[in-house]
Amino acid sequence: MTTPSAALCLKRAFDTTMRQFQSVKLRVD
């Protein structure tokens, strides 16, 4: 079982990665 704080950290890291990916995609386009 992961603790809520760990899950929150994972979600935050995932959101940050997705945001960076989106900006890179926009820059390529």
Automatic annotation (TrEMBL):
Protein name: Uncharacterized protein
